[in-house]
Specification:
The chain is mainly β. The strands form three sheets. It has an eight-stranded parallel β-sheet with strand order 1-4-7-9-11-13-15-17, with no helix packed on it. A seven-stranded parallel β-sheet has the order 3-6-8-10-12-14-16, with no helix packed on it. It has a two-stranded parallel ribbon with strand order 2-5. Helix content is about 0%, strand content about 55%. It has strands at about 5-10, 15, 15-20, 30, 35-40, 40-45, 55-60, 65-70, 75-80, 90-100, 105-110, 115-125, 125-130, 145-155, 155-160, 170-175, 180-185. The protein starts with 5 loop residues before the first strand and ends in a 7-residue tail after the last strand.
């Protein structure tokens, strides 16, 4: 329902599924589940509000992405998997944004058992998560996980994780908070 909403889905590969629900006005959803994916899913819900954007591109292995946005001018971009060769594995990303002008950008490139969860409520919050490893060093123990929860206004969280058993948990409640986590190597944890 609503006016001026736009949705485009491109699927190629095996066991892929996409569901897009948009209400409000001038919202945009893009899903591209690439060529060699197996078991990919994408669910996008953009509730009452205007000018929200959701973009998902998923490649190889058992990726799933769930984006839920309500409010105005929120933006979520999720890319999972590798480009040429390598792993990809069991990536999962969940983005939940409510309020106005929130932005989430998730890249889980050649990781293994990666998860990323982003929950933002308020206005003008930004979350950027990468969790990528350089092939062939991916053969190490890459148990990457990132959880970002931001409530309030103009908070920023940036997470970069490479290799090993990395985990990062960020919770910010209030306004104008900033968190920057960069973990390279193995056996890391940050809260």
């Amino acid at each position: 329902s609503g006016n001026g909403n736009d949705s485009k889905v491109y699927q190629n590969g095996s066991d892929q599924s996409s569901e897009v629900n948009q209400s409000g006005n001038n919202n945009m959803a893009r899903v591209n589940q690439n060529l060699s994916g197996t078991g990919n899913d994408s669910y996008i819900t953009q509730g009452m509000g205007s000018g929200n954007e959701a973009t998902v591109s998923q490649s190889d292995k058992d990726n799933e992405s769930d984006i839920d946005q309500s409010g105005n001018v929120n933006k979520a971009v999720v890319y999972q998997g590798h480009t040429n060769g390598g792993e990809g594995r069991f990536n999962y990303s969940d983005v939940d944004q409510s309020g106005n002008n929130n932005t989430t950008n998730v890249t889980q490139n050649k990781t293994k058992w990666s998860d990323s969860f982003v929950d933002q409520s308020g206005n003008g919050n930004i979350a950027t998560i990468k969790q990528t490893t350089d092939y062939p060093t991916i053969s190490g123990t890459n148990y990457n996980r990132s959880d970002v929860n931001q409530t309030g206004n103009t908070n920023t969280a940036i997470v970069n994780q490479l290799g090993g058993r990395n985990q990062s948990d960020i919770m910010q409640d209030g306004n104008n908070g900033s968190a920057n986590v960069s973990q390279t190597g193995s056996g890391h944890r940050s809260t």
